[in-house]
Task: structure prediction
Amino acid sequence: MNNSFGERLVLTTFGESHGPAVGGVLDGFPSRFRIDFGRVAAALASRAPSCVATDTSRREPDEVEWLSGILDGVTLGTPIAFIVRNVCQRSCDYDALRHVYRPSHADLTYDLRYGIRDYRGGGRASARETVARVVAGSLAEQWLEQTHGVTIETSVTMPDVIPVNDSVGSAVHCSVKGMPAGKGTPLFSKLQARLADAMFSIPACRSFEYGSGAASFGMSGSVHNDQMEYADGHLRFLTNHAGGILGGISTGEEIMFDVVFKPVPSISLPQHTVTDDRQNTLLTISGRHDRVIAPRAAAVVRSMTALTLMDQII
Result:
């Protein structure tokens, strides 16, 4: 199982959704950088369940315990290790699922791959793992802003109405401003490929498109081409259909992409499925589950974007 992300800035995450804690080790982060711990807490709060109707009734008061790599709020250049304890699990909610494969979950495939699975909320396949990404991503986002003036913004799109006892798909739009030109590499490690890899690693991601994306289909070259001009000592693009990336390398323009997430698979409507001894059954899932993903996934999108871009810059 590949539990690490990045080449120069490497994040390794660990822990299961219903274990004692989840956490991570961030290696390669530069020394002498002062961390704003309040921003880390705010990022975790934006990922956590809230009181809005589209969210679960579950509450996750996440607090980071820093284990290494930081002294008096300043990074040492050594591996930054941290944990966030799981304090709101109700593993009993999953007792009835011990031998049942939930539709659209990774239960079956984990069993096929490893011969065993953590039925308590999905274990490593649970979105709970993304807590570690948000902690590390907050550090990367702070570094990008303070050292290079790079800012990351996200917005959420979702249906106005969610059917009772059901869930819906949703999307996150991400915009990056201030990314220096000339970052990234061509061919097999293009910047857009690195971003796509980061986004598809997020649980429930179903599509990634940058620039004009799918709208490029049928568009004429005369419209899609981003024409350029040189004026007042600066080269600039008249449009940005490329989404800030050409040939796998940043142009200096705004990097724009969209990430679509599937409907939450845990719904209370009856569904046909199979047990681990290959018996047909009808499953109704109870417990505390989200009904839409994007509002909480936006923090993860920001974090994975920050980790990817910082990795490219350093």
